[in-house]
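Quick one:
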Amino acid sequence: MTKPKAKEQRLLRNARREGLLIMAVWTACLLWNIGSGYWLGYRRKPDDIGLILGIPDWICWSVILPWILCLAFSAWFCFVYMADDDLGQDPGEEEGHA
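Output:
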């Protein structure tokens, strides 16, 4: 049986690692969204903007693509990367009862 202190540190380390990864991905998506939206949408002449399935191409590359990538990242993060740590029992909780 591991010490409660070591277990708590492992939980904190996993939570910190996961939180930092989420913040890094969020920041990258924010920068991509703002940067590509500015460069592809506002730095072009209106005649140069094409359509993808009836949507302006800069919307597809700066909004829809990051959303799809974030959805894929969220699925990977939840089902593969995130640690499933045992949190133990609440004080006073009996064995076998929910």
